[in-house]
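Long-time lurker. I teach an intro course on protein structure, and each term I like to show students one example going from raw sequence to a predicted 3D structure in C-alpha cell notation. This year I'd like something fresh instead of my usual example. Would anyone be willing to generate the C-alpha cells for the chain below so I can use it in lecture? Attribution to the forum is fine with me.
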Amino acid sequence: SLPPSSSAYLTWPVTERPHPPSNDNNNSKNNNMSWSIWAPVPALMLLLLFLLDFAAAVAAPLDGCRAAAADVVATETEAEPEAMGLKLIQKASAWHSSRASTPLRPGPPLQQQQQQQQQQQQQQQQQQSSPSPALPQLAVTEAKTRTISVYVYDIPDSVPRGDIAVNLRDDCRQPKVHGCVETATVGSEEWLTALFGTSEQVTIDGGRTVACRQMTAYANARILYTTLQLHPERTTDPEKADLFLIPIYTEDWLPDVATCPTFEEVVELLPHLNEENAGRHIWMAPTPGWFGEACPPFYAHSNDPSAAARLLSKTTKLSLEDTESAPESVFWNETAGEAAMLGITWAPPISENLHSVPYATVVSGLDDKDLEAWKKVAFDTKRVRSKLVSAFLNTTHGMMQALITRNQLQAICESRPDACHHKATTNESLSASDFQSFIGELLEAEFCLQPLGDTVSRKGIVDSLVTGCIPVLFNQYQAKLWPWHVGNWQDVAILFDGVPMDLIDLLEQIPQQRRKQLRSNMEQIFPRLVSHKPNDMRPGDFVDTILQHVYDLN
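-- Reply from a regular --
Happy to contribute to a lecture. Here you go:
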C-alpha cells in the first residue's frame, strides 16, 4: 500500500482556491470547444463522450502507478526484495504527490506544461536507466571559468527619520552571541567568530577529533555581505557591474515595522537601481523569508500602487525558503492559528522573484586542512557508523503538521531504542558541550530524521548533509528546498510522504551500496554548501553558486 498522501494538507478557502489547468490533453481540448457545437448532438453521443472521458480519468492514475512500479522492477531486478519494495513505495509516493499538488496560482499555458512534462519524463528515464542516480549538473563547472563583477552599495546600518533611527542592518546594534563583524580586524579570530561562530572540536571514533564552528541559524546575510565586500571582482563602477548587492537586512525574527524603511527610502538608497537592471540586484533575508520576518519592502509586489514598490518587486530576493517550498496555499492554515495565538503578523512567503538558499553550515569558515580532515570522516564509506538512526525533536512548538510528525517519530524511536537514538530539544541555544555532542551524533549515525521545523526547513537538514548523515524527509515540500545548492533530493536523501509506522524497518532494509551512493552524492554537493572565509572565496562554493545562478537568471 502507498504511504499516506499529503493531499489532506492542500487546504485553501473555497472562494480563493484557483483552478489549475488540466494536464490531460483530451480534457483540455474538450473544454476549449464551444458547447454550442454539441447542442444538436443526440444525448446518447454526449453520454458516450462522458463515459470515454471518465474511463480516461480512471485509467490515468492506474497507468501512472503501473509505470512507477514497472520502472522500479525494470531497474531493480537484481536488488534485494526489501530494497525493491522500498524503492516502489518512494517512487509511487513521488508520483502520487505530483498528481495531488495544487499550484498557488494558475499554471503556465498547456503547451509549455507539455514541454515541461516531456523534459521531466526524459530526466526520469535517464535517472532510472542507471542503478546509481547521477547528480544534477549545476553551475559549479562554469564557476571555475566565469568571473562575475559585483557592486556592493555603501549603505549605513541606519538612517534618521525625525526622531526614529531607521534600521537597515542590525549586525552590530543588537546583542549578538559572537560579536560584531564590522568592527573586527579582517582575518582575525574575532572576525571569523563574528561571521561563522565559535571554533569547536568534536570527538568521534573513540578519540578522533575534527574541527567545526557553532554557527547561528540566520548568518547567511552577513556572510554574503562580508564576502562580496572582499570579492576579487568587486567593482566601484556600477556601469561595469554584472550584479549588485543590497546590504539591507535584519537577523531579528520579527522586526519592528516602525523602524523599518519605506519603499521610497530603500529606492533612494539605491541610486543605480532601474527597470533594466533590477533583476541583477540581490537582496537577502537571512530568515525563512515568511511574511513578517523582514521589513515590508522585501515583500514589494508588482501590482502595488507605489512606483518604488513596483521597482523593488523586480529585484532578485533570497531567503531560506520561497513560494515553491512553502506555498501559501498549503501552509497558510498551518500557521494562521499559531500567529493569531501569539498576536503576530506571520504567514508563508509572498515575495516575488524569491529563491531559497540553505542555512550556513557548521564547516563554513574552516581552512583547507580542517575541511579535508572533516570530509575524510563525514564521507568515508568504509567507516562504520555506530548508530542507525538519530533524531533531535522538539515536540512543544511549531506548525500543527510538524508537531504531529515529530510526536509520531518520537513514539517510533521510543519503540525501537535499539536502532533509533533520539533527544528532545528546546529553543535554548546549545552550550559548547551540547553542540559537540550533537555534531558527534550526526557523524556517528547512518540516517537523520528531519521532519518539518517551525517552517518547512530546519538547519538540521543542512547539518545532516555536511556530516554524511543521510537525511530522511517526510514532506514533499522539503524536496523543493535549495535547488541551486542541492539539486535533486532523491540523490542525497530518503523521501517519505508522511511517517510510515514501520519506518525503522524500512531504513534497515536499505542496502549498504545504496547508502554509500547517497553519501558519495552528498560529498559531491558538499562544496556548494560551504562558505569559505570571505577573503578566500572559492569557485563553486556557497556564495559563488548564488552569483552564478542569479547571473543566469538575468
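Some talking points for your students: The radius of gyration is 25 Å. The longest helix spans residues 43-75.
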